[in-house]
Design goal:
Blueprint lengths: L1 H9 L1 H20 L1 H49 L5 E12 L8 E3 L12 E3 L4 E8 L4 E5 L7 E5 L5 E5 L7 E5 L12 E4 L11 E9 L8 E6 L8 E7 L2 H11 L1
Antiparallel strand pairs: 1-2, 1-12, 2-5, 3-4, 3-12, 4-5, 6-7, 6-9, 7-8, 8-11, 9-10, 10-11
Length: about 260
């Protein structure tokens, strides 16, 4: 206590000065219109900024729900537009885990056996083809995306229906290679590549990408083609899982050929 009194006594003049300054400031603000309005304006600005940040936080927290609803609506609309005799039962799902910088990338979605998900289902989003489901658990499934060096996707040119195979070289998640395109095929930069429909995983015409490089080296029988993928895997959050109504019959026929 004595130490506190000594400190107060030592700095008493400074403390009195500070108190007088505060009182003078308040008197000026109260009696002068301009300083008072300036202070109120500053205070209002601070309050407005706080409300803006609170609103942004609320919007961010509600954004997840909005995205979930939009994904479900997209799946429902695609079900209505798709030929139900073959492909149907689009289900929305959220990506909960993913890699894009490995040779064998994968992603995990929050749908599983309890949602009637099965191995071999195609996976897409609003932009195009994503991959194929390889492992199914009770509530989650693992997808092998097209940016996996083990992936092969049957594709075709949208302009002339020539068929090739999409492969990934393990380098850049934005690009893949289109192989098996012979030299007599009309191929050029800017051509659109879509799924061929020859796989039970995807219907025909799902966007895959656009050709950005198309080279033909002397003596080669096939083009060297680079495709910029329609799907940006760095931003992938929501997908749609594609069911095939004829899956059982196709599996039985393929099993008979083995």
């Amino acid at each position: 206590m004595q130490s506190l009194l000594k400190i107060l006594a030592r700095y008493s003049n400074f403390l009195v000065f500070i108190i007088l300054e505060v009182v003078a400031f308040l008197l000026i603000a109260y009696n002068s219109a301009y300083p008072r309005s300036s202070i109120l304006s500053t205070a209002n600005s601070i309050v407005a900024w706080e409300y803006e940040k609170i609103d942004e936080l609320g919007s961010y927290l509600s954004l997840r729900q909005v995205n979930d609803e939009l994904s479900q609506e997209n799946a429902m609309l695609r079900n209505m537009l798709t030929d139900s005799s073959f492909f149907a039962n689009y289900q929305s799902a959220k990506v909960v885990q993913m890699t894009i910088d490995k040779q064998h990338n994968y992603l995990t979605v929050n749908r599983g056996e309890s949602d009637s998900i099965y191995r071999g289902m195609g996976v897409r989003n609003a932009e195009g083809a994503v991959g194929i489901i390889r492992t199914v658990g009770e509530h989650y499934s693992i997808v092998q995306p097209i940016i996996n060096t083990a992936s092969r996707l049957s594709c075709r040119f949208s302009k002339n229906d020539y068929i090739g195979t999409l492969e990934w070289d393990g380098k850049d998640s934005r690009y893949a290679r289109l192989t098996d395109i012979a030299t007599h095929v009309d191929a050029a930069i800017g051509d659109t590549i879509v799924t061929s429909g020859l796989s039970p995983a995807f219907p025909e015409g799902v966007p895959v990408g656009v050709i950005t490089e198309c080279q033909l080296k002397q003596g080669d029988s096939y083009y060297t083609i680079r495709v910029q993928l329609s799907v940006d895997f760095r931003k992938l959050k929501y997908v749609e899982l594609i069911g095939n109504n004829n899956r059982t019959e196709l599996e039985e026929l393929n099993h008979g050929l083995e």
